[in-house]
Amino acid sequence: MKLKIAVLPGDGIGPEITKQAVKVLKAVAERFDHDFQFEEAIVGAAAIDATGDPLPPETLELCAGADAVLFGAIGHPKYDNDPNAKVRPEQGLLNLRKGLGLFANIRPVKAYTKLLDHSPLRPERIEGADLVIYRELTGGIYFGEKSTSEDGKSATDVCTYSVEEIERLTHLAFKAAQKRRKRVTLVDKANVLETSRLWRKTVADISSEYTDVSLDFLFVDNAAMQMILDPKQFDVILTENMFGDILSDEASVIGGSIGLLASASVGEKSALFEPIHGSYPQATGKGIANPVASILSAAMLLEHFNLHKEAKAVRDAVEESLHMNVCTQDLNKNNYYSTEKVGDFLEGYI
Amino acid sequence: MKLKIAVLPGDGIGPEITKQAVKVLKAVAERFDHDFQFEEAIVGAAAIDATGDPLPPETLELCAGADAVLFGAIGHPKYDNDPNAKVRPEQGLLNLRKGLGLFANIRPVKAYTKLLDHSPLRPERIEGADLVIYRELTGGIYFGEKSTSEDGKSATDVCTYSVEEIERLTHLAFKAAQKRRKRVTLVDKANVLETSRLWRKTVADISSEYTDVSLDFLFVDNAAMQMILDPKQFDVILTENMFGDILSDEASVIGGSIGLLASASVGEKSALFEPIHGSYPQATGKGIANPVASILSAAMLLEHFNLHKEAKAVRDAVEESLHMNVCTQDLNKNNYYSTEKVGDFLEGYI
Ligand SMILES: CC(C)[C@H](C(=O)O)[C@@H](O)C(=O)O
Ligand SMILES: CC(C)[C@H](C(=O)O)[C@@H](O)C(=O)O
């Protein structure tokens, strides 16, 4: 298969980890006889520094013309504490999601047996946990109108959802559930929010088309609690943008390391793959960042194009690295490998 | 001291648990020679059933005229799954918060040594955890304009914050920090939300008035993760309404039981005390609900009026009950006591 992959390393540890993922994808191409072409572009703080724009038009163009985007990380502390910053690195990612129409963010979370000891949760609570979050990614309060009053004394964010936006994600979530344990949980705050009530109604309507899948509802506050009390109860979690952002980071503790969690963001025409962790500025350039989330994002990319054998080869390599303790510092305190060395091991194992 | 206390049992297990809290407060009044007067009123689903209004004017009037409000719980499943319900029980609580101007919700979370085994988190992660969440309670997306388009195809919630709303809560949080470990963490989503940027700017400005307190910032997604990874890092968490709702329910897992968590909601003139758990409809009337959160809310009430000895007596009683295993089913599976019996024990211990 021929694939044109746009590579957007981004900020912080983004470049280091993406490099490992590209290395692994190249090994996959070689072993399975595919033609993967990679082209890099800038985004985020790096792009602001170079061009003033966190998503330069050429970057968006490259991504729109590619079969898939491999994304690193975004964000830089120098913008976080400056409430007056006119441009922000994150805007690059948000514009990219919107520009490519990536409305569905898919975040699988699994408890790796080998890593049970790394989780802050008791092993018996998480062993066997296997859930996936379907987060709406191009709507809600992220993309609603934002404003500050003229005197600077008040600020507003608007959260809007249309039935259409809810429907298209809901279908994906139910289809995923059909291939899994056949259970969808809609997380919302329908006792307070009008948008949540629209979600509840729309999702309930659609659920009647999927008679083999059960649907239940959970308020987001309760969901945040249940996620820790009993993560095994969840199969597919369906939710809006902001709640999905919070819940998926929270859910990362189940796996024992956020350094392992990958995500896919898909739309009608494009698909982007990125680790759920951020740019981790404190670790930048030190060779300690865990490349596995980026590499598993690459596996999701392969899966997206139905390259199942190939995706499995990557996942098997990761399992083996965990088994052999070929891990970065976050997972192997005393005898750790560098970002590069973990990448080398995985590349070699393909 | 003479105190007029409005009692609003509300829905579900609300009446059962509130009854125990009143019993304990009566014992406190007797032992410490105070004059506490209790007057009951309806709210929530119970009030809708009786009057069509989840917060009848007489209830609000009673509360406004009282020194404090003791609140049970609110919510009924028959309204949750009906997106077209015109009135909702929760509206009663929201109107009450707004009507009484209860802008600050204070939720302390502590890991009880005796209950470490009940937490889904590993004991070493939580032992010694002691944090308090200052949640804004009368603003944000909870109280912004809500609308549905005429064709019913889209819905909107508006989130607005003013500098004033942020300031008054921030001062309370910093004052609390001064009496604690002198650390405030503002949780927001300033990389996406305009309101969060106003929070960040306003809180940073105010922090310069409290030179003995340190301030740091955390994005809400990261905070949801850190809350589980390392809850001991937190002292005072300051945040807006929706994030506070989510984080405080999440934080409840630290203590080992949501059945122990109390909260105070305070304003310029009024104060309301309620457990953070909900109406728990499945348990209603079975005598299995844990009354301790309501009783500890009563302790916060006493504290609010500087009745420190009295509050301590209640807390000591609770500690003793945990120690003696005089606990409801959630904490003592095999040999549990009923809601009433736990109340009796605590009453007797005062
Ligand atoms: C960087 C940030 C804007 C982003 C988000 O909030 O969506 C990130 O947290 C994520 O979840 O991908
Ligand atoms: C019942 C509900 C409206 C309420 C809220 O969301 O504020 C509850 O969850 C709480 O936290 O007190």
Give an overview in words:
The structure is a homodimer of 350-residue chains. Chain A has 350 residues and is of the alpha/beta class. Chain A folds into 2 domains: 1-103 and 267-350, Isopropylmalate Dehydrogenase (3-Layer(aba) Sandwich); 104-147 and 156-260, Isopropylmalate Dehydrogenase (3-Layer(aba) Sandwich), CATH 3.40.718. Helices cover 42% and strands 21% of the residues of chain A. Chain A contains 13 helices and 12 strands. In chain A, the strands form 2 sheets. In chain A, strands 2-1-3-12-11-4-5-10-8-9 form a 10-stranded mixed sheet, sandwiched between helices. In chain A, strands 6-7 form a two-stranded antiparallel sheet. In chain A, strand 11 and strand 12 form a beta hairpin. In chain A, helix 1 (14-32) packs across helix 11 (292-304). The longest helix of chain A has 19 residues, at 14-32. At the A-B interface, strand 6, strand 7, helix 8, helix 9 and helix 10 of A face strand 6, strand 7, helix 8, helix 9 and helix 10 of B. Bound molecules: 3-isopropylmalic acid (2 copies).
Q: Quick one: which chains have the greatest interface?
A: A-B, 66 and 66 residues
Tell me what portion of residues of chain A adopts beta-strand conformation.
15-25%
> Which structural class fits the helix and strand makeup of chain A?
alpha/beta
Unique ligands: 3-isopropylmalic acid
Shape by Cα distribution of chain A: globular
**pLDDT averaged residue by residue of chain A:** 96
Oligomer: homodimer
Number of β-strand runs of chain A = 12
| Total helical elements of chain A | 13
Second-tier CATH architecture of the largest domain in chain A: 3-Layer(aba) Sandwich
User: What is the N-to-C succession of helices and strands of chain A?
Assistant: EHEHHEHHEHEEEHEHEHEHEEHHH
Strand order of the largest sheet of chain A: 2-1-3-12-11-4-5-10-8-9
CATH class categorisation of the largest domain in chain A:
Alpha Beta
The name CATH uses for the topology of the largest domain in chain A is Isopropylmalate Dehydrogenase
Spans of chain A of at least 5 consecutive residues whose pLDDT stays below 50 are none
User: What do we call the CATH homologous superfamily of the largest domain in chain A?
Assistant: Isopropylmalate Dehydrogenase
Ends distance of chain A: 17 Å
- The tally of domains of chain A stands at 2
